[in-house]
Amino acid sequence: MTIQAKSEYGTFRDSLKAPVHRWFTYPAGYSHKFVEAKVREYGLGWDSTIADPFLGTGTTSVTAKMLGINSVGIEAHSFVYWVAKTKMFLHYDIDELVSAIPEVSAKARDLSAQLDWENIWPPLVYKCFTDDNLRQLAGLRQAINDFDDQPHVRDFLKLALTSTLRIVTTAGSGWPYIAPSKYQSKKVNRHAFDEFQARCRLMVADIQQVQALDLPYSSHDVLSGDARKMDSYVADETIDLIVTSPPYLNNYDYADRTRLETYFWGIHESWADITREVRDHLVVAATTQVRMSTMNGVRECPGIREVDERIHRTLTEIIARLGEMRAVKKGRKTYDYMVAGYFEDMLQVLTSAWNVLKPDGRFVLVLGDSAPYGVHIPTELIFGELAVAVGFSSFEIEQIRTRGGKWGHNPQRHNTPLRECILTIVK
Ligand SMILES: C[S@@+](CC[C@H](N)C(=O)[O-])C[C@H]1O[C@@H](n2cnc3c(N)ncnc32)[C@H](O)[C@@H]1O
């Protein structure tokens, strides 16, 4: 394997070209080739089980299914979980599926002429599409919601329409957020009806391709849950390999990434909805998740103090520095709380992982370091050392790429070079 191929492991680039993986563009996703490489490296077979506590849109589980290996995946973001779950059902009756597409499309055309589409969404949605596409999208949404006697087919159609949204949006910023300043900055000549049908065709072709492989039976649990409590859903010492990519400590708000999609489907209507239903359930990795009033004790890292004095000292020094910078820096970002919350949360993930892994099992992560306000945090090193502190026998770090170049022109940004690594922890 060349270094160059490995450099893409932490990105979604390979997965965007692969059947089923490509059903939803998740920039936080990683490469299915990384999972395949690890399965090969550790010689896993039909009686092995692989787990991913931060499943995202299901790359690990979909890959395991293609390889005929059992899997358990856990995802705490309810909408992202639904995407993963939908990608894991591939036993469609192709005739039923193929006839549902024109049926729903015809109904959507009728509905789009009748519906009062001007008052059904929060303002963000109206800012992201042309009137013509809003009308078409409203018709499609209603027609799919009404298609309720075949839930799997409805989920399929719903995912096809979900992935159509970013194709036909006029908002130029795309992922991860729809930046308000960039509204309407892109010309779009694509029609929602046409793009929806094209997405459906692509997904049907993928299903036909996978069904033709006649994959051997394997068992897969996709769970809506919390990585920190993995050992409450998974029995002790049953997992051969954990492969994952956790949130990085880079102030990225996963809860907000799918705002356009969840507003569109009427799942959320406001920031407060998203906080209550998603943001509050995720590992702390962004200042938007910090509530200083309830996190005072967390800032002292009591869990880490209990497992290792030295790591605790290193971390609390970093946290104290970030606290001082908060007082004087622009934005007054609560990075100190974010860092403390992150490592306290990840400590629970490590303990949980240790419990579910078989003896000699491996916990393999794609992970990046970070530098809030320019203070370097060697996340992968601290995480490896914490792993040993909770009982793992050893760890190894392999750098796969450098990061951060694309922000180099931004004067607000630090100059600390960052990297992405594979961290392998041995039980
Ligand atoms: C880097 S992404 C993983 C992407 C995944 N490898 C893929 O290919 O789609 C990290 C994921 O962890 C999820 N997450 C954050 N906190 C979580 C928690 N406490 N339990 C489970 N999942 C969580 C986020 O919602 C996000 O989808």
Structure, briefly:
This protein is of the alpha/beta class. It contains 17 helices and seven strands.
- What does the largest sheet look like? 7 strands, mixed
The CATH superfamily of the largest domain is known as Vaccinia Virus protein VP39
Determine the N-to-C terminus distance. 25 Å
Give the names of the bound compounds.
Answer: S-adenosylmethionine
For this structure, the CATH topology of the largest domain is Rossmann fold
Give me the oligomer status: single chain
**Percent of residues in β-strands:** 5-15%
Q: What's the helix count?
A: 17
Radius of gyration: 22 Å
Please identify, by name, the CATH architecture of the largest domain: 3-Layer(aba) Sandwich
Number of strands: 7
- Helix coverage percent of residues? 40-55%
Q: What number of structural domains do the residues give?
A: 2
Strand order of the largest sheet: 3-2-1-4-5-7-6
Task: Tell me what the structure shows.
This protein has 17 helices and 7 strands. The chain has 427 residues and is of the alpha/beta class. The protein folds into 2 domains: 3-76 and 219-249 and 276-426, Vaccinia Virus protein VP39 (Rossmann fold), CATH 3.40.50.150; 94-213, no CATH class. Helix 15 runs antiparallel to helix 16 (335-356). The structure holds S-adenosylmethionine.
